[in-house]
From TrEMBL:
Residues 28-182 form the N-acetyltransferase domain. Keywords: Transferase. This is RimJ/RimL family protein N-acetyltransferase. GO terms for molecular function: acyltransferase activity, transferring groups other than amino-acyl groups. It holds the Pfam family Acetyltransf_1. Transmembrane segments: none annotated. It comes from the Bacteria.
Length: 182
């Protein structure tokens, strides 16, 4: 599914463009994924686990253009990708196609500017347009900023998964399961 471009005004007065990434963005997207995974433990992967090639990312972005149920939105400032938000079907099976899941990544330098709220608002609208009936997510229990954003956007906690993450140092992190009807 294609999105945008759409211009949003950030809390610091700068303009940010939300748009679907295109194949020429592949390298920048991979760098973004690695960078945000290095900045916080709240991401699902460590940077070294992001092994997708530029060609694989280009193919993925090309496939997204014609997919009516999945979307990726990147946020750019002065042409630089600084955040992404993606919406996907939980599973492409008849019993699951009413359920969407999403993820957001924002470079730390751009936290607290309203980008997460803007991305999530757009993803919720796109999920409705795509015919989804609910959106689900998992968030680490100590990610207070993320939990606050999700609650603000109408998500409810529906459970906890203990030891959902195992870190390199051998410690664990629990996660909340959150849900929003559309």
């Amino acid at each position: 599914m294609k999105f945008g471009p759409k211009i949003i005004k950030l809390k610091d007065g700068r303009e940010c463009i939300l748009r679907s990434p295109v194949p020429r963005d592949a390298k920048a997207l991979i760098e973004h994924m690695k960078g945000t995974s290095n900045e916080t433990l709240y991401m699902a992967r460590y940077p070294e686990e992001i092994t997708i090639t530029i060609e694989e990312e280009k193919r993925y972005l090309k496939e997204l253009e014609s997919n009516p149920k999945n979307v990726l939105i990147c946020a750019t400032i002065d042409g630089k990708i600084i955040a992404c938000g993606g919406l996907n079907c939980v599973k492409n099976l008849m019993k699951y196609i009413h359920r969407a899941e999403f993820g957001i990544s924002i470079q730390k330098e751009y936290w607290h500017l309203g980008i997460g709220s803007s991305l999530l608002s757009e993803l919720i609208l796109l999920a409705k347009d795509a015919g989804y009936e609910q959106i689900e997510l998992e968030v680490m229990c100590d990610n207070e900023r993320g939990i606050g954003l999700y609650k603000k956007c109408g998500f409810e906690m529906i459970g906890t998964r203990e030891k959902a993450f195992k870190f390199k140092d051998g410690t664990y992190g629990d996660e909340y399961l959150m849900f929003r009807k559309l």
